[in-house]
Design a protein that fits this description.
By secondary structure, the protein is of the alpha+beta class. The chain is built from four helices and three strands. The protein has a three-stranded antiparallel sheet. Strand 2 and strand 3 form a beta hairpin.
Length: 65
Amino acid sequence: MKGFKTIREASAQDQLDRSPAWIRAAIKHGKIKSEMINKRLILISDDEIQRIKDNPITISRNEMS
């Protein structure tokens, strides 16, 4: 789907370069906006990925669990 990436695609080195677990934690705590298609498929818009690249966010150790 153009304009959106899955969590795995967003974790690639040329995208956010973060682990899928880090991205899921950021979504869970509202730091990354995403679209939940079903229980297993979550999509992140290319605009949101660019926003995170331009203004990096942090996830604490407590937020990861």
